[in-house]
């Protein structure tokens, strides 16, 4: 059975995800996380992809990225994997696959869902009960987006820049968005679209995408899925 093609558009943000084989850990110590981030920075620079948010969890990663070209997200993961997998196999005297197949992802309607997906990504460690607050987790973009820590990987999206006229104002508005409790239906929709490749946006946005490629994208029913795993 042929692999399902993930649809991305140049200049359109996408939420992408990759998980370890059999849900096994892909990071074991600080050096592993640092190695991945260095490779992410190198690959993103080479492809001119804009990374807006990320989180590296024990056995999976999430990125919010705007590609320059349609195939750049696939190339991004290929470039990272080409060096990260041999690095891990050598470091831990293992062999074979590290990741559970290809990445998953979907494009976003920026105005409606961009900031929601940023928060979704950076709240992963809290939902996993690893920390009580996203600022306590080292391996995400929260410290940069919300607290002003230098991060050479990230490039701010126009919607993030529109949060305030100054850096401090933007960060304050961004932090305020983490105060409210997560909407369970919203979380479920994000997960469903991520796994199925369904564009995340209103009906007009989805129809525009499907008209452009000449077919339906993602799950056929636009309502809530029957079940989804927590990510």
UniProtKB/TrEMBL annotation:
MF terms in GO: DNA binding; transposase activity
Domain Transposase IS200-like: 9-124
GO BP, one annotated term: DNA transposition
Leader sequence segment: none
This protein's name: Putative transposase
């Amino acid at each position: 059975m042929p692999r399902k093609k993930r649809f991305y558009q140049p200049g359109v943000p996408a939420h992408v995800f990759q998980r370890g084989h059999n849900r096994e850990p892909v990071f074991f110590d600080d050096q592993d996380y640092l190695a991945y981030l260095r490779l992410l920075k190198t690959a993103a620079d080479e492809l001119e992809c804009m990374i807006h948010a990320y989180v590296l969890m024990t056995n999976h990663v999430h990125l919010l990225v705007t590609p320059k070209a349609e195939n750049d997200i696939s190339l991004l993961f290929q470039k990272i994997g080409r060096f990260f997998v041999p690095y891990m196999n050598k470091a831990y005297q293992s062999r074979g696959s590290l990741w559970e197949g290809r990445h998953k992802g979907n494009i976003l309607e920026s105005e409606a869902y961009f900031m929601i997906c940023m928060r979704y990504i950076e709240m992963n460690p809290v939902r996993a009960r690893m920390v009580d607050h996203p600022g306590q987790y080292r391996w995400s973009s929260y410290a940069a987006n919300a607290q002003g820590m230098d991060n050479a990987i990230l490039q701010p999206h126009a919607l993030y820049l529109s949060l305030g006229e100054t850096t401090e104002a933007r960060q304050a508005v961004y932090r305020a968005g983490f105060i409210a409790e997560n909407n369970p239906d919203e979380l479920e929709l994000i997960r469903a679209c991520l796994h199925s490749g369904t564009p995340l946006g209103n009906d007009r946005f989805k129809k525009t995408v499907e008209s452009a490629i000449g077919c339906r994208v993602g799950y056929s029913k636009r309502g809530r899925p029957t079940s989804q795993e927590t990510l």
